[in-house]
Amino acid sequence: MATFSLIFGLSLFTSILLVLSFSMSSFLRASTRPDLMVGTNRVIARNRKRFSYR
């Protein structure tokens, strides 16, 4: 039981760290290049429309 809780805590900690690092990197990228983010969002929306027509 103790080993299970230890493994669960470690996996939870690593997942939280991954999410935090990912959100921080995306936030920094968005704050530095907002026009880049808007452009990628537009391209994704355009591709989605094209796929929905098929």
Secondary structure elements and their pairing?
Layout: H1 2-32, H2 34-53
Helix pairs in contact: 1-2
Structural commentary:
There is one protein chain. The chain is elongated. α1 (2-32) crosses α2 (34-53). The protein contains two helices and no strands. The relative contact order is 0.07. It has one domain (2-53). By secondary structure, the chain is an all-alpha fold.
Number of helices: 2
Radius of gyration equals 19 Å
- In round numbers, the mean pLDDT is 75
Strand content bin: under 5%
Helix fraction, binned, reads over 70%
Q: What is the count of structural domains?
A: 1
**Could you tell me the number of beta strands?**
0
Shape: elongated
* Uncertain regions spanning at least 5 consecutive residues: none
SSE-based structural type? mainly alpha
Give the SSE order as H and E letters: HH
Distance between the termini: 52 Å
Largest sheet: none
State the gist of this model.
This protein has about 55 residues and is mainly alpha-helical. It is built from two helices and no strands.
